[in-house]
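I have been asked to look over a protein record a colleague put together. Alongside the sequence sits a line of tokens, each denoting a local backbone shape. Please read both lines and tell me whether the tokens look consistent with the sequence. I do not need a full report, just your reasoning and any doubts. I have pasted the whole thing underneath without changing anything.
>
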Amino acid sequence: MKLLFITALLIVWIPPMKSTHCKTVVRVKQEAMQYACQTQRRSFQNAFGLIPIPSLIEKKETGLFGNGGLLGIGQSLVGNVLNLVGIKIHNVQLPEINVKFMPRTGVQVSIDTNLHISARLVVVGEIAIKAGAGVMAELKVMRTAKGFPILEVSACKSLLGGIQITTGGVRLIPGIVDTIKGHIQAILSDRLCLSVSNVFLGLNADLGLLVGAKTIGNDLGMQYMMPSPPVVNNDYMDMDMNVEYTVHKKVVDLPTGEHEFTLPPGAGDQNSMVNMGFSQDFFMSLFTAFQTSEGFNFEISSASAMVGSYMKTSVLGSYISEINLKYPKSLPVKINIVLSQTPIVTFKSNQLLVQISPKVEMFVVQPNLRIENLMTINVGANLLAKLNAKGGKLKASLSLQGDLNLVMASSSAGKCNPSLLAGYMHAVFEKAYLLQINKDLSIGVALPSLPNVQLIHEVVEVKEDYAVMSCDLQYVK
């Protein structure tokens, strides 16, 4: 639910975790919270409509009836007992909800509504009661030991406005009217806050999904955690979030930067509801997890649809003559690309660069299917990462930036100059290797969200030392 999504970002107090470095910052604007709250009006309407109001049966002392009797129409009709039964809220005007950020504290939610109540007063019959109600609640989000948020209402007070009683033409004496009003006010004053608290607390199961485990492919998973309290001012709130990745359900040991990440005041689209900043550490963690899951490893055979025609000794021999001397008859070639080192991520000139150093092993497949090692080349590649966001996910696609750096590690074809294979390796990387990597990366990294909440109008910008996504929110029933 959208209100829950934003409320989870308005954390009043969270016990600190062990020292970690923030990888993302989610900035929520006042307009976002106001819009989000309005989508929850029906939830509060339903909760208020279910408030039970017990019957009022009260024995009145002599002297309260007046000369005209208890109801003003003669004491003989009802004796000396006030009997109000069947009290039920049958209509609730959709609440109006307002939100106020409280700097350095959290969020205050004010809810105003009107309740239409029906009841039956013995002898008189059906009566109608209208009551204006207001509730002011302060929200607080606690955190479990694992960094999951738990929502609670830390303070709440309710106020009842004017209460009007309609009896269908029968006049009630002021003492009876005051007694009925007092009964309605006492019950609602206590139970309105309870209903508000129940609406918020009832959302805790969904709230866990904000930072809950999310899947990226078959074996790579992730979840967000909240390491520290948010910073709240008059216009927006900044909440830090860290990411934990798992491969085959085992937590990945991620690199940690030297400095905390903060989102500059003017970052992102100032007209958007939410701005989310991504640090260098965020992308270091992402590509480290991807490398740990062997996402950067790839095997290319002569049956490859993209570069199958390249996978022959005769093609390699056209670049390095020693290969033709060793294999005068053209044979199939197989290539294994393995990345064992952590990728290096940097921001430069409003670009996100990923540096990788994979080992490229080339094998010759003999007619009897025996595999012979041909050569091993250490490759240095600079990749340009293009970012976009769609469907609640941040996605990256990689392309080669500049030339490959080739260093021969071993060769069974004698002394070979690896630079002669620069054009060949460039084609293999572009036509097969990066094609497969981008296919895997296209799954995307899930952004914090909840069921029934969509991120819309997403725009991603890369700055000098961070990236930022700006978006609006849309509630979907």
The radius of gyration is 34 Å. DSSP finds nine helices and 24 strands in the chain. The longest strand covers residues 371-390.
